[in-house]
Amino acid sequence: MFSAQTTWLGLFSFGGVTPDLILVWVVFCGVRCSRAGGMGAGITLGLIQDSLSGGLLGVNTLSKGLIAYFFSTLKDKFFVEGVVPIGIFLVCSSIFDGLVFYFSMGTILKGEVASGFLYQLLPVCSIYNALIGPFMFVILDRIDGWVQPKVSNPYMGSTR
Amino acid sequence: MPNKGNKNKKNIVLVSAILLFSLALMTLNVKQEKGVRFLDSITGIVLSPFQNFFTQTIQYVSDSINHYFFLVDVSRQNDQLKLEVQRLINEKNHLLEHLASQKRLAKLMAYEDEWEKKTVVASVIGRDATQWSKVVVINKGTQDGVEDHLAVITDAGVIGQVIHAGLNTSKVLLIVDGRSAVDGLFQDSRVSGVVVGMGSDECQMKFVPNTADVKEGDLVLSSGLGGIFPKGLIVGKVSRVIRKKQGLFQEITLIPGSDLSRLEEVLVLLP
């Protein structure tokens, strides 16, 4: 997933915007895993993403960890199946992720973020993630279904 | 007994007749060829339909049997040829890719020769893992003399600057990133401004006065101020100009000189 994100995914860029597969993965983990598992996955994926990024280290660890925690905590209170809920989750997650980046850049680095970030780049990225998200969920569900029987132990119960 | 004598006579007569007839034919054949040819023709006309029928039937049966077994071989041969074609297509693509890479490198090397400074040719091996940063990873690091804050260019213009030089790889902040700022000037009017990234695939030229004569298609070059990018490198081309009635500066959008979404090889300008 990280290889795809950092290499050929640029071919699918739309106006310089590429989808964030890692964000979709984090939301997936949040929705499908337990609270501790989801949060652990979010932090781990965010940390790897930070190390593969040219941005401030820790921004993605924070945002991805919080997103995964949020969804793993509140998944029982929402209807989490179907294209529309997943799309809405991804729009909200993308906006949150972008705002964390925006405020961390503005406060910690005291750097100037591009003027059109909030009203141009952020909505486009959110919609792009929401469009690609349901397809990614199908793929991740398949992979999960393929991996799960191999790792689950009948004597220990399901990992979910 | 008389019957036996009659039989012998008959046999002698028959044998003699055969001998005489054949002798006559041979004699005719030698003396009068046309007559024999006529006989051949008659025979041919009468027999040829039967001959054709039998020949074709045998040929058909023979062909069917042969082709059935032959087709088994052809099927195998077809599979082998398909594999061979696939291999050749792959080889052709590989060679075309190699040729395109060589052409790009030749262009870069020609550019490098014109350049007075020392340079390093690097390949782009990765891109930023997030949506918000515009960073690429190149396959040259401190081992090759790459340091932080060195300019990275192609023959088409400025790409960005090194923000983190590792041992074997380096991160390059592209000019379209929101954190990037390059001092530039218009090639024609020589008015200067600051080129900042927009986070998408475009840049903005800031601090250009409303009175400056700027139009779409104008080239923006690096001014040399700031100490990272040498003077005269192409930064981008003006794609949109908005002059507001209220305000001091124009809103100018630039398209980078190089296609930053299709970067493959770049030049790092060494100090």
Description of the molecule:
The complex is a heterodimer of chains A (160) and B (271). Chain A is built from six helices and no strands. By secondary structure, chain A is mainly α. In chain A, helix 2 packs antiparallel against helix 3 (35-51) and helix 3 (35-51) runs antiparallel to helix 4 (59-74). Chain A is globular and about 50 Å long. The two termini of chain A are 22 Å apart. By secondary structure, chain B is of the alpha+beta class. Helices cover 41% and strands 26% of the residues of chain B. Chain B has helices at 2-31, 33-114, and strands spanning 119-127, 135-138, 151-154, 157-165, 170-174, 181-186, 192-197, 203-206, 219-222, 234-242, 251-256, 265-269. In chain B, helix 1 (2-31) crosses helix 2 (33-114). Chain B is rod-shaped, with a radius of gyration of 46 Å. In chain B, 30% of the residues are buried. The model of chain B has no long low-confidence stretch (mean pLDDT 81). Chain A binds chain B through residues 2, 5-7, 9-10, 13, 15-20, 22-23, 48-49, 52-55, 60, 94, 97-98, 101, 105, 111-117, 120-121, 124-125, and chain B through 126-135, 137, 163-164, 171, 173, 176-179, 196-202, 204, 260-261.
